[in-house]
Amino acid sequence: MSGDLPKIDVVLSEEDLMAKIDALADVLAPRLAGDWSAINILVGATPFTSDLMKALARRGIHPVLDALWLESYRDERESSGRVLVRADIVRSVRGRGVLIIDDVFDTGRTLAFARSHLMTKGAREVITVALARKPWAPKGEGDVDYHAFDAPGRFLVGYGMDDAGKYRGLPYIGALD
Ligand SMILES: O=P(O)(O)OC[C@H]1O[C@H](OP(=O)(O)OP(=O)(O)O)[C@H](O)[C@@H]1O
Ligand SMILES: Nc1nc2[nH]cnc2c(=O)[nH]1
Description:
Elements lengths: L8 E4 L1 H15 L7 E7 L3 H12 L6 E8 L12 E4 L9 E9 L3 H12 L4 E9 L12 E5 L4 E3 L15 E4 L1
Parallel strand pairs: 2-3, 2-5, 5-6, 6-7
Antiparallel strand pairs: 1-9, 3-4, 8-9
């Protein structure tokens, strides 16, 4: 049947996801007073961006939302090693604080590219946030600034994350073998 799922282990339930996003918003909100832009890294970060924006709005924080469409995995489960800009941001970030939002922090290439891309456009300050961080992701200077969830070292799907374009709509984070 076309609706059949492969074996997907739930690694973070919808309820636990929402609790982690709320806790993240508590930490982020005090840092985001003033002129901030929030940049949704398309495509995968869209559900996370939506829920994080709502959690920030409930705390009185309303960054200007924009999007940057980056691609490096295409339909593979390993990074191509190159980050491609498929569509750029629309609003200027010159002189503004920028919160870059991504779903998963893995090799770190995507967020490193996004950070430098937005600094080059004149951002005053860049903060990165990812929902999930892989165990082998870069530490130290190349690390993501904030993350909500320490993910297992497996290929994740759901809540924006895909396997060749599928499963982005699952309301939980799952892992495939
Ligand atoms: O830390 P990295 O190794 O760079 O991996 C993280 C990136 O990989 C995925 O993007 P992908 O290129 O698959 O595009 P997508 O968002 O459209 O799924 C994901 O959405 C992150 O942006
Ligand atoms: N869907 C998906 N995309 C990724 N990009 C980098 N790591 C992952 C992952 O675990 N799952």
